[in-house]
Specification:
The radius of gyration is 22 Å and the shape is elongated. β8 and β9 (178-180) form a beta hairpin. The strands form 3 sheets. A 5-stranded parallel beta sheet has the order 6-5-7-10-11, sandwiched between helices. It has a 4-stranded antiparallel beta sheet with strand order 1-2-4-3. Strands 8-9 form a two-stranded antiparallel sheet. It is 32% helix and 25% strand. The protein is built from 8 helices and 11 strands.
């Protein structure tokens, strides 16, 4: 990742894959960003059929940011690059040295291991050690009981302020149903009453339409898209 002169450049570098020779043979790699173009056999994709629109969607998203995606192919690697305008409103030092107050704790939840790792990393970066944070979501009990757990922890530490982050769509392992993170936050805040003044409750969701955001903000304090 590079940033300079209000310009963000993000590069993803991969080693050669199964169809690397096909990419090398292209006269113009921009073809990969056309709708419906794909370079592998659907029969090898574990019963998941791809339409081949992934790169096209990326390019459309980049264009919405007034930017563009490019693909560079060499015998040794492929480089996917996104370049778009990005103005910085805070200085690097303000980000690097920011730290949550000592008298604060955090509780986060997500149903996927990768996202739980990302959440834990984010919380560590703002100065929270393992003793002052929990990242939940590995079991059905944690997913279904998240709201009650938040209430219990807030009352357990009456002099502490809490940052609570919940993924919106918490899928149970069985796939039987999905638990709404924002709905659990709403119930927890209502149960806490005046004690909720010590809680900053945020929901994480990729669904960030005006209608979705309006619903989330009726339930909690903010949205992390």
């Amino acid at each position: 990742i590079e940033h300079s002169c209000d310009r963000l450049c993000l590069r993803v570098i991969n080693e050669p894959g199964e169809n690397h020779q096909s990419l090398l043979a292209l006269d113009d790699t921009d073809i990969v960003f056309e709708k419906g173009v794909r370079f592998e056999d659907n029969s090898k994709s574990n019963d998941r059929v791809s339409s081949g629109d992934g790169a096209w969607i990326m390019q459309r998203c980049a264009a919405a940011l007034n930017g563009a995606c490019t693909l560079t192919v060499t015998p040794d690697c492929t480089v996917l690059e996104l370049v778009c305008p990005a103005r910085v409103y805070v200085q690097a030092d303000e980000v690097m040295w920011f730290s949550m107050p000592v008298s604060s704790r955090a509780i986060a939840i997500d149903d996927t291991p990768v996202q739980r790792t990302i959440l834990a990393t984010m919380l560590h970066m703002v100065g929270l050690d393992d003793e002052r944070m929990e990242v939940l979501g590995a079991t059905a009990e944690e997913l279904e009981g998240f709201g009650d757990h938040v209430v219990s922890e807030v009352r357990k530490y009456p002099d502490t302020r809490f940052l609570v982050i919940a993924d919106e769509n918490l899928d149970l392992e069985t796939g039987a149903r999905t638990v709404s993170g924002s709905a659990q936050l709403e119930l927890a805040l209502a149960e806490l009453g005046d004690e909720s003044k010590r809680v900053l409750a945020l929901v994480r969701s990729a669904n960030d339409s005006d209608q979705d955001r309006s619903r989330y903000l009726k339930r909690c304090h903010g949205v992390v898209a």
